[in-house]
Amino acid sequence: MLANLKRYGEEFKTFAMRGNVIDMAVGIIIGAAFGKIVDSLVNDIIMPPLGWILGRVDFSKLFLVLPLDGKFQHFDSLDAAKAAGAVTINYGVFINTLISFVLVAFAVFLLIKGINKLRADKKQSDDDAAPATKECPHCFTTIDIRATKCPNCTADIQ
User: Fold this and answer.
1) Average pLDDT per 10 consecutive residues for the chain, totaling 158 residues
2) How far is the CA of 75 from the CAs of 11, 65, 86, 89, 127, in angstroms?
3) What b/e string do you get for 43-67 counting C-beta neighbours within 10 Å, with b at 16 or more?
């Protein structure tokens, strides 16, 4: 059993130390941090002025109380409704989350667009690069572009 455990440990170490696994882990960590930044941007920067423009609305406090036993109840705040055990639909929190998602999706779109542009530019520069070899017109072997004499058939190349 100890030998199996040691073997599994070695296999896991090999798996975990692959470059793509480490890259994925780094991406997840950075993505989580980026998500927190976007949440703060939405909750602390975007939504307060938007709520102010729309009549001093705090989106994070918008909710709908579902009726209990056919009776509607009124609560002044979401915290009061939760403390009373009321069932609520927190559509304001959903609006904030939706805006956060759209911002993250847009940032990922811009990132992918930039990466694709870099790849296209690199491919274009690779395609535009001058060839490094040429073909001897006499023996049809591939030779260096700078050659003036074919090393295979010794013919003069122009």
Assistant:
1) 79 74 82 85 84 82 85 87 89 86 84 85 68 87 89 86
2) 57, 8, 9, 13, 67
3) beebbeeebeeeeeeebbebbebee
Q: What pLDDT, on the 0 to 100 scale, is given for residue 127?
A: 61
3-state SS assignment for residue 117:
helix
Tokens read off for 82: 């939760």
Rounded Cα distance between 125 and 103, Å, is 33
Q: Name residue 127's amino acid.
A: D
Distance CA 139, CA 157 (A): 11
- 46 DSSP assignment: I
For the record, the structure tokens of 108 come out as: 């990922």
Half-sphere exposure (Cβ direction) of 50: Cα atoms closer than 13 Å: 14
3-state SS, residue 134: strand
Measuring CA to CA, which residue among 50, 145, 28 is closest to residue 95? 50
Q: What pLDDT is attached to residue 126? A: 63
